[in-house]
Amino acid sequence: MTRAIVAAALYRPSWEFEGRPAEGPDEDALTLAVAATELLPHRSGPVDRLDWVGPSLPGSDWALAEALDLGHLTLRRHVGEPGSLFQALDAAANAPGPGASILVVPEGSAPTGGTRTYGAAAAAFLLEEGHGLRPRAHGGRRHPRGDLPDASAWTDALEKGSGIAEGGPVRLLVRARTPPPALLVAIGKRWPHAAVETGPDAIGPLAPGPMIAEARSLHDLAAPAAAPASVALARIAPDATVFAGFESTAPVKWTGRWDETAPLPRRGALAPAEEPDLRRALSEGAYVPRPRYLENLGARWRLAADRCGACGNLTFPPRASCRACGRSDALTRERLPEAGLVEAVTTVAPGAQPTEFDALVASVGAYDVALVAFAPGARLTLQVADLPAGRLRIGDTVRTGLRRLYPMDGEWRYGRKALPGGPAPTP
Amino acid sequence: MVGAGHTRFGVLPEGPRELLRAACDAAFASVDRGLERSRVDEAYLGSLGFSGWQLGNASAILAEEARVVGAPVTHVENACASAGFALRSGARAIESGAADLVLVAGLEKMTDVGSARRRYWLGVSGDTEWERLAGLTFAGVYALIAARHMAEHGTPAEALAEVAVKNHDHARSNPNAQFHKAITRADVLAAPRVAAPLGLLDCCPVSDGAAAVLLAGEEIARTLTDTPVRIAGTGAGSDYLALQERSSLTSLAATRRAASEASRRAGWGPDRVSFAEVHDCFTIAELVALEDLGLAPPGQAAELTLSGATRLGGRLPVNPDGGLKAKGHPIGATGASQAYEIFQQLRGSAGRRQVAGAERALAHNVGGSGASATVTLFDVGGP
Q: What is the second-level CATH architecture of the domain B3-113+204-378?
């Protein structure tokens, strides 16, 4: 029994830099991966395998699993090369046992530094044993350096892909909203150019017809308007075209904005700002030794709180005993609700920020900080992301997302920030 | 209190040693019948850390500059309430009979470092992990208190502005104050925002300065001056470091506890004072203090302030010396500076800012956003 894709989620940042879509100043491959995965529906059973395609994540492989609270599982990183996504899909689908796998494809700057990434995005797939979308075959070819791709770079691959497409139309994965009987994924940043340069014959096999229900050009990364639904996937193979075949036996739940033609609401334009040199990001400010940071990850990354079985009080952040009754023998960990209510909010003007946020202020200017109540006794001071300063009001509902907080001791430190919207909090 | 000394507050050329020396020299010189320094048998220094120049064993600097080397000196650090707690320690040393003569000094040197390092020191007394590293300095924390106070009680921005206007006006009669410039409500409301709803003129300045007071047991005090000022009762309290963990966002439990303890020890309470020195690091802090001290019902400090009652000449003058807002706020010096003002006022020697007929007063000193606080009640003593 193999595992099949039962849900897919896509997260796209909504900032602009130099007129192009770009990741936010507090986003990178790790936060993108977490954001996409958190868009997946809640899993019915334990996840025993986590694959991702992309850059090394901070600390080591554990960061993503820790942020997602996945416990012990098999972790596999697949280096971003043509075809990696499909090798990873094969691996995730063929994992032994009855569990579930998550595959994440983050495309953003590496957490260890680097410049801002245009068209950043992340896709996440949940694979479970049973019916769904199954990867069947893939193929691809790297374009000859310096040349436009020749038609064979993808017609060859199409032949492989079309082998499993018998008996039904073929669609592009990223366009599929309803379950087709089979699906063809075609990825390649140069496709539009190729189509123009090589003429209609070259893309003939991909035109709508008996084989293909819908064929649309994937975006070119260089296009200023690129809304990167496919970009996260395309960047895996920046100089290649890859095709893959799927067969579908059950509907897939798609979440996030997959429609590349619909513009995302833009949060604003980022000003050019120096990336902090992480090696030199020694404190001219408050200092949090690394072990103190690490011991709080449960609370910082996943909003873990302690529920006291004796008196029912919720203590956040956890302090090893109940804040109300002092008992330490009846505590159980539970996650705070997803949404909270803003009790107070302030807009911190440039110059009034702690020094750790100088780079953020250089990018976005003023930012908001809110006191958010998630449950009686459980309040959190959260920086507000993805909303222009001064918009949030007392009484608004917010949700949270993992973001970069501050650089220290050669690394980015991460934590939750308040994001606009979310389900109404439970009273 | 038998003597008190005070430097100018502001951006000063003097270093920490010169400031301490000047404040202590002035305190000794103010003792009516003179005091041999060798009689000091205990001393306390309130300071945060004067920008890291002498973090450890800073008490020795006080011993050296006050010329009391040999006497035990304790460095008390409770952020902006350091000297309030130093004063309390000094008073209790005398109360317990362990000491006869105590020197209490407060000091901060804040303007001799670059702006990044200064912002660091301004934030070190907040909750590092959950407040500062969410992006808040103290202006931001008090802005959250202000936003909530405005939402819960309908506190108007004009009331916050009036606190600044009044304290600037008071400071014009205080030669030691950092600012001598009158401002208007319109100035305050139009000033650039620092952390909305607080603007630049809602915030106390960054200041250098020192103050010192000399304490003696009542019998000895009567031999040193005919007009000592009596510490009638001290109180203090604590609270959670981070605002997010406290029961209320608009009231400081540490202040309420401190006021209650001080009242119990003095046998009378804040309702009896002729004037009050309260901790107005931000304009909202004065309103919250008035409510926590019971000088205004909850939510009604704005009304009291806008009525003019807290101005010099009003029913209950608050911060006749200009407060932290306009006199200046060298963090570790503030608690001692408040005691200095009360020493002058209750002896009728406050000059143009004298509160007529002042007989009782209180000093209220808060650490950070309320994790620690002291309330001290003073009167003129006597039979």
A: 3-Layer(aba) Sandwich (3.40)
